[in-house]
Specification:
13 strands, LRRNT, binds 2-acetamido-2-deoxy-beta-D-glucopyranose, 13-stranded parallel sheet, 11% strand, 12% helix, Leu-rich_rpt
Length: 349
Amino acid sequence: MRLVILFLLSVLLPLVLSHGWDHLAGAYYQQNQGYLYGSLYADRAGGECPEECDCPPSFPVAMYCDSRGLTAVPTIPSHVKYLYLQHNAITALPDSALSNATNLVWLMIHYNQLTSESIGKKAFLKLEALERLYLQHNNLTSIPSNLPRSLLDLRIDHNKIEKVSPTDLEGMDNLTVLYLHNNGLSEVGSSLKALKSLILLDISGNKLTKVPDPLPANLHQLYVEYNSIDSVPEAFLSKFTQLQYIRMSHNLLTDKSIPANTFNVSGLVELDLSFNKLERIPLVSTTLQHLYLQANQIKEFTLGSFCSVVDMTNFSKLLTLRLDGNEISPQDIPVDSSLCLRQVLDIEI
Ligand SMILES: *[C@@H]1O[C@H](CO)[C@@H](O)[C@H](O)[C@H]1NC(C)=O
Ligand SMILES: *[C@@H]1O[C@H](CO)[C@@H](O)[C@H](O)[C@H]1NC(C)=O
Ligand SMILES: *[C@@H]1O[C@H](CO)[C@@H](O)[C@H](O)[C@H]1NC(C)=O
Ligand SMILES: *[C@@H]1O[C@H](CO)[C@@H](O)[C@H](O)[C@H]1NC(C)=O
Ligand SMILES: *[C@@H]1O[C@H](CO)[C@@H](O)[C@H](O)[C@H]1NC(C)=O
């Protein structure tokens, strides 16, 4: 249930936000949190709305200042919980900008012009209730210091971050979603390991040359596509208990760089190894459902990669198999493959 809600939030919200239905998102959240209108109005007495923003009377804990060409953060009344500042031209976040905004739960400040130098070292220090921080599409070169440990969802993708220090994310025990994609990271060391609640890590589109290791053991989704990864650690997947989705497409993986049995683990639902340099189909578990291997250099259809035994109960649960853009053709599929791959509707080759 928790996963489903998380998924809905992460899929619907960006959609809703990008379509400007912020009010709807607010209402959705309000309903879920069970806030009472009476207490909201009482809350409101202390604050007023800066003229460049909208503070809807029906949802006074939200303040909408998005997409209006702002270059600085307006004055924020202290009762505001949901602050929308995205799609502006804000260049700085000094220490004082959020010092009164101690009740913030969401801070949306993506698509602005923030640089790491322009964010005060203490800018986030007082935000002890902050759960969601969107900083994507700015000009940051590092993760801001003193981020609230209360964060659940941190999005800082599409910046110019080259390094993650161990202290940047230390103690964020409730962080479940971390977007670091499209930055300039060449390694992350062990800086992510301690994020014990992390479920989704997207670190695609960086400059990684190997799979980050160690990673948090609770991950469900790991996205490392569009890097320059040419090696996978030994027994890499045995460190995870919940991993279901792995995307490693558009890297430099070869047969030799993937230790035998790496992907022969139950629990995996989806494995994307497309656009690499594999010459063989890696051994996968019979429980895998979606396997993407298009645009490699595979020369042989090895049925043993999917099934070692075939009978009533032993067969592959694969539903999707893509092999197009390799060096094999439909004639290379053995006739008896339908016994093993009995759930695949259509092998793309
Ligand atoms: C913070 O609140 C104080 C007292 O209400 C006020 O004087 C000050 O201007 C506020 N600062 C900001 C940055 O909103
Ligand atoms: C942010 O980066 C963009 C694109 O690289 C650039 O055009 C802009 O001038 C930068 N802004 C600042 C404040 O550095
Ligand atoms: C994590 O969430 C729990 C339960 O809501 C809370 O008690 C705890 O303080 C949070 N941890 C941090 C680091 O904010
Ligand atoms: C794949 O994993 C299964 C289950 O752990 C195991 O029984 C089987 O021997 C493995 N296959 C190979 C070829 O090692
Ligand atoms: C095949 O299925 C049977 C149950 O019908 C099971 O006992 C056996 O271990 C399976 N063999 C393999 C290699 O998975």
